[in-house]
Amino acid sequence: MSETAKHATSETTVIDADVHITVEEETVAKYMDEPYRSSITESPHPIFPSSSWDQRMGGKIDDHFSTFTSAGDLLTFQKEFDIEYPIINMFEPLGKFSQPDLAVNLMQAYNNLLFDQFLDDHDFLGLASIATQKPDKAAEELDRVGDEDQIVGVYVGTSGEYPPLGDPEYDIIFQAAEDNGLPIVYHGNGDEFMFDFPIHNRGFNNYFEVQTLGHPWQQMATMSSLIGEGVPEKFPELDFVFLESGIGWVPYMMHRMNKIYHMRRSEVPLLEKSPEEYLRDSFYFGSQPLGEPNDPAHMKQIIGMIGADNLMFATDYPHWDFDHVEELDKYLRNYFTEEEREKVLYETPAEAFNLSL
Amino acid sequence: MEEHVVATTDELSQGERKLVEIEGREIAVFYVNGEHRAYTNWCAHQSGPVCEGKLTGTSNAEFDRDSLTVDLDWCKEGEVLNCPWHGWEYDVTDGSCLSKDKVRLPSHSVKVEGDEIIITL
Ligand code: FES
């Protein structure tokens, strides 16, 4: 991490909704039970699927990722980025694992590791990982870890889960999350998109194309499934957080789902109001990676459309496409009121994650 | 305000309608559940000919949080007017849109005198 200049947010309390801890396979294996542990440590074939894409282009982009593994790294990051409250997650999208029982054991291992290495000795905030392959096990896990104060949400690393994530099969997870007062946090990704999304994704020739589509497609699929299945109507106290897809896709989905809802209401009769109202009531969006319009006034319009009540700041540190606080803050300072700015940087995430800081 | 005789009662049985033109405006009179209702043939979505759409029922759903089950119900049979352009649903008994609060079909007062159905515009 390079030293960063003093910036405007040093005067402001900032919650970062998306910070990833890198966990080596051998490290998480120590928290696993047999026979799953040996599947990780002893198998001659890699159990953690790799997409083989080179995200960092032969080293042209620095690798912050593989060295960001400890509580000490997190403390350094907090200081250099002036972020009081990073909300950490264990990143690995568990949906990509072929063996459901192994995924369930990994889920428990990541959560135990989260407590053991990060939460027990520090006042960090974290998200509980779940594997969706066995919804009843995920619900049990939420009941196991969900009432710990430092657990502020449920982390779902999406990778093209089947059935899509609003399916009634997952209601038991929503029920457990709502009972534990935790929002569900969806995080797409570039690489895993190639495992489960349509086979034509295999046809892309560079990571530019994959990265452009991977995140928003997964998030759009998840959002569409949640609204289409009426999940926010079924669980009105439950909140949903979408990370790492930027925000430009949100107005598009909001308006498109409104349109389709009015044309096909009888197909989704659980819905009592327009999709936009559900989004405004219980969906939150991490800002990163903020799009880069050539005319900054266009980003002002997008931020305005989503509004300070649903937008929150996120770095996505230490991934290669992380955003510095300044990336969002320059728009907030130039175009929005101080009140709106504070909402985005602090109050809205505090509300989404039920934080009383 | 002017009264216009648009049909006789024997022209419309349950679930039927008659589309007429009055002062250049297309208006439909429906006979549903023993009542006559009149609306302008104009959909709030994109001005489609809503009064020419099908009268059907629609789905309603209830979720039981304890059992995690959804109870799907087909209801309002014959009372839901579906705009033929994109399917916006209206309750033909009061003109309200089923998917949008505050949206209603433009309605007109209807009365029956003898066997004449009269619309006041
Ligand atoms: S014009 Fe009536 S549904 Fe579109």
Features:
heterodimer, A: 357 residues, alpha/beta, TIM Barrel, eight-stranded parallel sheet, 8 strands, B: 121 residues, mainly beta, Rieske Iron-sulfur Protein, six-stranded antiparallel sheet, three-stranded antiparallel sheet, 0% helix, binds FE2/S2 (inorganic) cluster
| Helix content, binned percent of chain B | under 10%
Strand content of chain A: 5-15%
Strand order of the largest sheet of chain B: 1-9-8-4-3-2
Strand content of chain B: over 45%
Supply Rg of chain A: 19 Å
Helix-strand string of chain A? EHHHEHEHEHEHHHEHHEHEHH
The quaternary structure here is heterodimer
What's the N-to-C terminus distance of chain B? 5 Å
**How many strands, which pairing sense, and closed or not: the largest β-sheet of chain B?**
6 strands, antiparallel
Query: pLDDT under 50 segments of chain A (min length 5)?
Result: 1-5
Computed structural class of chain A:
alpha/beta
The CATH topology annotation of chain A reads as TIM Barrel
Task: Give the largest interface pair and sizes.
Answer: A-B, 19 and 18 residues
Number of helix segments of chain B? 0
The CATH topology of chain B is given as Rieske Iron-sulfur Protein
Number of helical elements of chain A: 14
Summarize the structure.
Chain A is an alpha/beta fold and 357 residues long. Helices cover 43% and strands 10% of the residues of chain A.
Give a structural overview.
The complex is a heterodimer of chains A (357) and B (121). Chain A is 43% helix and 10% strand. Chain A is α/β, with parallel strands linked by helices and 357 residues long. Chain A has one domain (8-352): Metal-dependent hydrolases (TIM Barrel), CATH 3.20.20.140. Residues 1-5 of chain A have low confidence and may be disordered. Chain B contains no helices and 9 strands. In chain B, the strands form 2 sheets. In chain B, strands 1-9-8-4-3-2 form a 6-stranded antiparallel beta sheet, with no helix packed on it. In chain B, strands 5-6-7 form a 3-stranded antiparallel beta sheet, with no helix packed on it. Chain B has a single domain (3-120), classed as Rieske Iron-sulfur Protein. Chain B has strands at 3-8, 16-22, 25-32, 35-40, 55-64, 69-82, 89-91, 107-113, 116-120. In chain B, a hairpin with a 2-residue loop joins strand 2 and strand 3. Chain B has 121 residues and is mainly β. The interface between A and B is medium-sized, with 19 and 18 residues. The complex binds FE2/S2 (inorganic) cluster. FE2/S2 (inorganic) cluster binds at residues 43, 45-46, 48, 50, 83, 85-88 of chain B. FE2/S2 (inorganic) cluster binds next to loops of chain B.
